[in-house]
Amino acid sequence: MPEKIYIFDTTLRDGEQSAGVAFTPGEKLEIARQLEKLGVDIIEAGFPCSTPGDLEAVRTIAREVRTPTICALARAVPADIDTAWEAVKEASEPRIHVFINSSDIQMAHQLRKDREQVLIQAEEMVKHAARYTSNVEFSPMDATRADPHFIFEIVRRCIDAGATTINIPDSVGYAIPEELGAFFRALFENVPNIHKARVSFHGQNDLGLCTANTLTAIQNGARQVEVTINGIGERAGNTSLEEVVMAIKTRSDFLPFYTDINTREIYRTSKLVERYSGMPVQWNKAIVGKNAFRHGSGIHQDGILKLRETWEIMDPAEIGIPQGTQLVLGKLSGRHAFKEHMLELGYELTDEELNRVFAAFKELADKKIEVDDRDLEALVNENVRAMDTAGWRLDLVQVSAGDHATPTATLRLIDPEGNIRVDAAVGTGPVDAVYRAMNRITGLAPRLTEFSVKSVTEGIDAQGEVTIRIEDDKGRTYTGRAADTDIIVASARAYMNALNRMLSVQARNAEVRANP
Q1: pTM of the model as a whole
Q2: Is the pLDDT of residue 422 over 80?
Q3: For residue 232, what is the DSSP state?
Q4: Cα 447 from Cα 468, distance rounded (Å)
């Protein structure tokens, strides 16, 4: 039978120690309720002696969040332990978490005590906490930089004093997985009463190794892990709950364990903590990052369309990600993904239309990091419509303008017979110069009655969509639209589109007159 790994969430305590993070009591309660829905076993709700507000927040959580164990942190001093108990005593399952420095560098320079003094203090304070509750956790802080034999001794004494959970903290993110595995094996071999306590691990991410270290600890006997949502925490953060839980779930062949986490609540919990902490989740963050289930490569997109498992080892639905797998259209996207996405948008394009729109998409993707659905709709409207109004084609637009220069436009057009025509003109502005040059080349002179520009999407790289209306000498109106990241180019294409519409209508009218 697989063994259970107990999830000890310290988002509300160590997570709040992230520089710049300060949860309000109301936010703490809401996060705690969501952690309860998520299914964590223990919530470390805070450090009650730090402020009166934190004491009251922990007390409120203890009263109102009933399923998990509610834990309060305390230094190995009587006042901290008394305050911690006041905070959690109304919980359905209260826990006091006592800690003390254990590495030589911290004992000497922070506590200014020797090893024997620390041993006595730890033992006495665990006994003090055990008078309140049988659920006492003890942490020898900075254990991974301490003398292992000192850790074995302090752990043995604290278990005898009443500690039922022993947590080994990698407080400064110093451990290497292989080294940590050996440490845990030695702990079980050298502490004769270790079987009386559940062994835990707390990792910090200073070297980016905390998830690897946490999994190593599990493989070597730890049955509780101390984690935070999104990996927030002091300095580089803590072990990420979602990474450990999904590693266990995904690699059950290698990690024969289970947790009671409802993984479908992971994404919702992540977004809640992101919002209240003010710490954005990096796009490439494992499990909950924006890009965790988004695919930009054409090869990957093709595989996903054939079978999701070709490029995804987890189903985003298992994590509660509402939009699921996303194929992001960009310059690396392939034709297969593009065609499928256009079908999803409701565009059933012929091969000829697809070729034209896909070519325009590739050109746009070189200018924009990401192409969204509004961009695609603009491309279809422009390019499919352009096929229906064949005639003159715009081949080149070059404009010179400035506050101390005369706006000048040079255009190269291809006429309906395929001949290249080039001319230039000046105007009151760059768009006026473009239109004058186009009139010179085509020999047409319609009246411009309307010109408008709007943004298709947001951002500095957004496409601008230009809509124009022109009027011929008989008062008939023709509309042209085009979109491009360059508004001058969009203006030229829109005008060209309107001219072709006018020529097409005039040609049809002439045919009707010739063949009544």
Answers
A1: 0.70
A2: yes
A3: -
A4: 11
